[in-house]
Specification:
This protein has nine helices and seven strands, in the order H-H-H-E-E-H-E-H-E-H-E-H-E-H-E-H. The protein is α/β, with parallel strands linked by helices. The strands form two sheets. A five-stranded mixed beta sheet has the order 4-3-5-6-7. Strands 1-2 form a two-stranded antiparallel sheet.
Length: 208
């Protein structure tokens, strides 16, 4: 229970922060107190930054990465290859892979993975959009860079089957990323090597 202070505005701010994943009541309370120690202009700029998230942030029409425009800077970059698409679960994975400096293609952000236990099916994430994108303009290779969990593997397999009719090389990152690991938490060196040493996805099917 959040300790109430005799200010509804203060208590509301604490409750909103505490509702975020990974931020408990005590942390939220400290953060709000820290914000209050800033001058009024800084507090107003802080608020405007978050209002801008809902008013200005868009999702790229092609890869569904966060963007200020209908096409993100990665998709608009002419030096990045259209023949290579890396499929990831979320935007944090895009950031993690970009930090390795080992990938020069385009991304496709699913916005989740298939998870029947949580009621998430293929049509609840950006799989239909991926299939449509690949059918319209087949790349030479699709890298499956999803978390090495049961749900991640199931999503990999579903997409692989959906693309089986196309002459597209479907690969997956090497198992330098440990079983059960999430991409966003993998160190840059390991993730970079896993990208460089990727293997055909069909080869992983014989290992199961």
């Amino acid at each position: 229970m959040i300790q109430q202070i005799s200010s509804s505005s203060f208590n509301n701010a604490v409750e909103k922060l505490a509702s975020l994943p990974g931020i408990g009541n005590k942390t939220a309370l400290r953060l709000v107190l820290q914000i209050l120690n800033r001058d009024q202009q800084e507090i107003e700029e802080f608020g405007k930054a978050f209002i801008g998230l809902s008013e200005q942030i868009q999702y790229c029409n092609s890869c569904f990465n966060i963007s200020d425009t209908s096409t993100c800077s990665l998709c608009a970059n002419p030096t990045r290859s259209d023949d290579l698409i890396c499929v990831v679960e979320n935007i944090l994975d895009v950031i993690a892979i970009e930090k390795t400096n080992q990938f020069s293609g385009k991304f496709h952000v699913l916005g989740g993975i298939i998870s029947p236990m949580e009621g998430i099916g293929p049509n609840d994430i950006k799989i239909p959009e991926l299939i449509e994108r690949v059918n319209a303009n087949p790349p030479k290779e699709i890298i499956m860079a999803l978390s090495t969990t049961m749900e991640g593997d199931a999503t990999n397999f579903y997409i692989y089957k959906k693309l089986a009719h196309l002459e597209v090389n479907v690969t997956t990152i090497a198992r330098g990323v440990g079983i059960g690991d999430e991409i966003e938490y993998t160190d840059e060196l390991t993730l970079g090597r896993s990208l460089l040493n990727r293997i055909p996805f069909k080869n992983t099917l014989t290992l199961k």
